[in-house]
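Justification of computing resources. Each target in the renewal requires a structure prediction run like the one illustrated here; the chain below, 368 residues long, is used simply to show the kind of job we budget for.
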Amino acid sequence: MWVGFGAYLGVLAWAPALGRRLVWGMIVVAVIAFACVPPLLSHDVYSYVDYARLGALHGIDPYVHPPAAFPADPAFAHVTWPHTTSAYGPLFTLATYPLAALPVGVAAYALKAASAAAVLALAVLVARLAPARGIAPLRAAAIVALNPLVLVHVVGGPHNDSLAILMMMLGVAGILTARETSAGAALVAAIAIKASTAVTAPFALLTTSNSLPTGRNPRYTHGFRPVGRLLVGMGLGAVMIGAVAYLGFGWHWLDAFALAGENQGHTSHMSIPITTARLTGLDPDVARGMALALYAALVTYLLIWTYRGNDWLRAAAWATFGLLLATAWLLPWYLLWPLPLAALSRDRPLKLLLLALTAYQLGARIPL
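Resulting structure tokens:
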């Protein structure tokens, strides 16, 4: 991991000089290589498969019944959270149902392929958006796709964060290219995969609002204003996804968002609040409360800063990064959440802090 991190820093430092062919070649080879190895360091992918099989094969709602409800299923032997119902959004759960027709191992590799494709798509997307933001496209692609935590945990894991963040970034791209309706639908789809992507939505709404000083734009004078188009897209996306989710799960799918929120009640050894408590002797609950209070203050400041006409993408990147610092349940694959936003943020301190957090998390979840 440390050798990979050193190589990653080297590519980031010299990406423009290395050339387009070499950098993209490294990205494609690295992502495909980690997609081909067996699932690494986590069995979450088998939980994805088990939830799909519970619903599609056994007629059991994965938002009501955990994997332990059907221990005879072949996926169950690999599940590490047997008594936990699904904490994932209904869009992801329904999308995995076709995998129930495949053998468990094949289904796991199908999810690895989907995660690898999503990471490659993220790299392409940030590279396409980077020039308009005054950022070197090769460096933007490399900071996302060659990060060792992304390769090992997101692709090698694999984890569905890649799909959620891809949808979120499609929403970001829609706003940056004046396609607010599709952007709104993409942001809702991202939340319907993983709730943590909702952090970006308030900043998207603020930047498209006509109350912003930067709102004096010809697009605001014809038809719906950008914020109106964004809200229409979000509304249509929410209605369509909500209706399909209700048909599939009733209202039980809403429990996934409550369960995701309850993760804050858990702790991971290398989360920043818990590490702070361990080093200072603070009560973990006190450290966790202080972290959440500081995060609330940060988000409030960033929302005001965005409302005053500053760069909403930079603010969203800081808000997402701050979430990683504040949560007591920090996992190494969560680093993907702020990476594409930071890659486009024109904020050198933020990028350096993300590199520091990457280094801090290199040993996380490795069974030494």
